[in-house]
Amino acid sequence: MANPTDVVKTGLRSLQIETPSWAYGNSGTRFKVFPQQGIPRTPFEKISDAAQVHLYTGTAPSVALHIPWDRVDDYEGLAAYAREQGVRIGAINSNVFQDPDFMLGSVTNPEPRIRHKAVKHLLECVDIMDATGSTDLKLWFSDGLNYPGQDDLRDRQDRLAEALREVYDRLGEGQRMLLEYKLFEPAFYATDVPDWGTSYAHCVELGPKAAVCIDTGHHAPGTNIEFIVAFLLRAGRLGAFDFNSRFYADDDLMVGSADPFQLFRIMYEIVRADALAGGIAFMLDQCHNIEPKIPAVLRSVMNVQEATAKALLVDRDALRAAQRAGDVLASNAILMDAYNTDVRPLLAELRADAGLDPDPTAAYRRSGYAERIIAERADGQQAGWGA
User: Fold this and answer.
1) Are 316 and 337 in contact (CB under 8 A)?
2) Is the Cβ–Cβ distance between 82 and 136 less than 8 Å?
3) b/e code 138-170 from CB counts within 10 Å (16+ = b)
């Protein structure tokens, strides 16, 4: 094996983690959103906050937008502002779940008028991609059923396929569609895109510009997510991650906070496929309900870096030899040795090599940015998703 320190540093330099604009706004559970001081009021202020994360970590160069939460009159101007701040516009996330018309579904709704309305919004998102230079359209549908017999399961799949095809055919050169799935909520009997297999099947039917997005919180307890990762990597259809953590369901906690070993196992499959810089969009999708926004995002980025560093430390040659020899204990020990390594000094060294503060969180706190935005944003309507 090559020098482990060099392997880790080389791998981490290629890792890019996208942060979502909505992570910087007020958010919470279905029951309450707790407002905080200094919250952005506009998409421009969200981008300013996201730029702070990249400034102190050096590994978060893009910001995902959510439409209509981040709707502006001039998207080219928004993209230019992002570049001035040292970041760029990432994935464009659609929203076909908050309009009252979508109570019985959006693209799978039995009413043609409502399906047309939903597709029109998705096509608007592609227009925004054109204006901002974004290459990824992120689709998540809350569509589903609460009761048996409420609608026809097969008809809804046909409607979904028809809508996806129309949007897919609109994609331009270098653009792609990322289809996310979710086991349940807000639909509880049947969800129209409930699992990776459904997403994968639709993507294969659509063509090479469609790929699966995995949200780590969108699985049943005990699901082997790294198996899904390995399968989709093998098939060339893993397009993106929405990173978060959960204890029970879709808790949207900071990535690596509930099960850091799971995050390590996921990142090992990506490292094993040499896919750290292979077109997978790594994004945080979290609900910072009680924790300060920017420090929480910083912590999440650092958690992904730590898990990735440990995954890069796995002696893959030794592991393969042990696996081929059928040595169960040695194989597991090689993985566990890497996982149990304290990589924080190595990450601090990597940041220092890049001219960054070894401790991003401490550097941010010393910067005075938090105090400044609290003073500057005392007036106006705070951004949030409105629960």
Assistant:
1) no
2) no
3) bbbbbbbbeeeebbeeeebbebbbebbeebbeb
Contact indicator for 24, 54 with CB cutoff of 8 Å = no
Q: What is the Cα–Cα distance from 48 to 362, expressed in whole angstroms?
A: 19
| Mean predicted confidence (pLDDT) in 262-286 | 96
Per-residue pLDDT, averaged over 355-361, amounts to 98
* Amino acid at residue number 110: P
Helices 225-235 & 196-206, crossing angle to 10 degrees? 10
Mean of per-residue pLDDT scores for the chain: 96
Distance CA 24, CA 48 (A): 10
Q: Which residue has the tokens 């407002």?
A: 35
Which pLDDT score is estimated for 262?
A: 97
Q: How many residues make up the chain in this entry?
A: 387
DSSP three-state, residue 118: helix
Q: Is the omega angle on the peptide bond into residue 186 within 30 degrees of 0, that is, cis?
A: yes
Q: How far apart are CA 118 and CA 104, in angstroms?
A: 12
Distance CA 216, CA 285 (A): 9
Residue 105: pLDDT above 60?
A: yes
Q: What is the pLDDT of residues 29-68, one digit of tens each?
A: 777 888 999 999 999 999 999 999 999 999 999 999 999 9
CA 8 to chain centroid: 23
Q: Which residues pair with 144 in a beta bridge?
A: 191
What torsion, rounded to 10 degrees, do the Cα atoms 331, 334, 304, 299 define? 130
Single-letter amino acid, residue 132: T
Cβ contact 211:169 at 8 Å? no
Mean pLDDT score, 316-334: 98
From the list 139, 266, 274, the residue with the least C-alpha distance to 211 is 139
Query: Cβ contacts of residue 7 below 8 Å, gap of 6+?
Result: 1, 312, 313
Element (H, E) at 18: strand 17-20
Rounded CA-CA distance 384/70 in Å is: 10
Q: What would you report as the CA-atom Rg of the chain, rounded to the nearest whole angstrom?
A: 21
